[in-house]
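Predict the assembly for these two chains.
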Amino acid sequence: MSAVAMLPDAETERPLLKVSRLSHYYGARLGCRDVSLDVYPGEVVAVVGESGSGKTTLLNCLAGRLTPTAGSVEFRMRDGRLRSLFGLTEAERRLLARTDWGFVHQNPAEGLRMTVSAGANVGERLMAIGDRHYGTIRATALDWLARVEIAADRIDDEPRSFSGGMRQRLQIARNLVTRPRLVFMDEPTGGLDVSVQARLLDLLRQLVADLGLAAVVVTHDLAVARLLSDRMLVMKDGTVIEHGLTDRVLDDPREPYTQLLVSSILQV
Amino acid sequence: MMDVDVNEAGLPRVVVSDPAAGFTPLSNSPPQGGRGPVGGLGEGGSETADLDGALSPLEGESGSGGEPPREGALGAVLDDDATLPTYSFAYLDEQTKRMIRRAILKGIAIPGYQVPFASREMPMPYGWGTGGVQVTAAVIGPDDVLKVIDQGADDTTNAVAIRGFFQKTAGVATTTRTGEATVIQTRHRIPERTLEAHQILVYQVPIPEPLRYLEPRETETRKLHGLEEYGLMHVKLYEDIARHGHIATTFAYPVKVEGRYIMDPSPTPKFDNPKMHRSKALQLFGAGREKRIYAVPPHTDVVSLDFEDHPFRIQSFSQPCALCAAEGVYLDEVILDDRGGRMFVCSDTDHCEERRAAGHRGALSGEAL
């Protein structure tokens, strides 16, 4: 039974993340412009577009890693109130980032501590929120490693000795251990070969469904967006040119650029 | 009595002469013959102004040690008779000592917080206690009695050299007796004898940042301290248990000071950590190369980090000191020959000597070594 089904209806009907008219400029250069977006609990939103279209800038603004030039990002806290991300103190924002949020980087080395063991990587967030019992931390770490299909005997190995796919799975476990409500993913399958990609996508779909996660996934890979997301945004030159249900956008693209994107998919 | 020279830049150079303190600059081998105060701001002073009382902040510092302000602790002694070779009391010029005292006061006000300070070049290499020496120079006065230990011993190179340095530059009395000292500079040990309220313990610190090896960016570690994000510190302890089955960190064991800042107690053995907890003595930490000063005021909570199911434990020894039969003290292993002979003796040499003077005898104390 998915967590979404257990939530009262009113909870799922109110957006978890509310973005209005967000713009970010790097000096005179445009990052992204005038993006509005709501993310509801349990929903996966994909942001697609070619590289340089402003996807990652948008994601970083949503996750509080960049301060937008204009516009607002609001997040519904556990008490049900919608609060502006940039009205929070840095301490509150960082607490949010390690409890209610996850951030999966394209390059696992950015999201992991490469010099400490896999178990400590998973346990770090628990220790950061005050867990001081080694036994329970380790048991939780083992449980999460099993969920992301990493063998239990690798728990004391450093991620340096892991393959790319394992590292990515470990990064996901590290992020999900505190049961976040919202996960940001930047090209989660980038740089992985196709079979590994397929397994990772499978895993992500399962976790998202099991935990009732909301997620914002940035990807240039339309297949990833189709498999993972409920809705999608298509970005070009920093603006959102089309958005809608994933199946609708991919099966019936309206904008010429989206049509080009969809028709560019390699057919094997 | 104090005079201030004002140089061309308009910056005052404080020159203090205090014959009552009973110190006269040594005529043999002054470090800076015939020149102004070492590190002074210039030579071209002509105007003088009375700045009596301008250096008063020091009194607060002594006060927090639970003692009356020490007379002449400021202690700069300089002869401004240009014909005599002169230099500042305790080597550092007065402005530098004031700067260091400000950092110390701030450190005392925020226990465990690393205060940046403008560390000076000292006539010794980094890693030999430049931070500790600067802190000692800033707090020592003519009436103080100085003890310097290096790994608990009074007779090792570092300890002898630093003791000699202050004998020469400050003319203070020195001792090897923990009980008699008012200022104790230490490298990597805390004396076995419980310190009292009138004593100051000055630590030499190589790396003040406890999070350094987990997070190399100083900008980030400062933020972690500021936001009290200390999950990372437990990651290190977790790694210890995962690898060794117990917390294998035996020195520089991280502590939480007054429920707020995580602090590196300098590379003292974790055996000494409990001695820091609510110590009556003021504890000051100086890191010269890293340019940081921090402090633990008297009666402050100092708690070693641990896990609920892996509590903090100090080292224990299976046998007593071979010379003085002391138990419950930190022991050094001494190799006696090349056939596996060894003995364990007190790391705190003064403690060992005092016990032997009081008639305690260990298993090997009768043998010629």
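The interface with chain A takes residues 214, 223, 227-232, 234-236, 238-239, 241-243, 306-310 of chain B (CB under 8 Å). The CA atoms of residues 10 and 43 of chain B lie 12 Å apart.
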